[in-house]
Amino acid sequence: MATELWMNLPVKDLEKSKAFFHDIGFSVQSIGDGVQVAVEGSKVMLFPAARFETFAHHQVADLRNGTEVLFSIGAESREEVDELVDKVERAGGTIFAKPGLTDGWLYGMGFIDLDGHRWNALHMDMEKMP
What we know:
It contains three helices and eight strands; from the N terminus they run βαβββαβαβββ.
């Protein structure tokens, strides 16, 4: 059965995307004609859009008109969520949801990377979870 899950994303400028993810705290490694960004065993592979289309057998979606997926990153604390806001903004990303508390136990924020992919960071206070 499956042993790992990798997400593949098309990017417009591989070097700029590589720098962005490095600057916000991901481990970054060049692999073949792409880049692997990783955090705690999860891997996201970044490929130039034209290369991505060759193995996806489909055109890249226009992310200005919709969102296909929301990637979530677990955070150890509220402070870590807040720190990510600053890192994302300094690296050129866009915050679409400022840090805030939901349902009394879920603290998170949302951002858009350089290519329009949506991400969020979440700290879950399991002691307060209903």
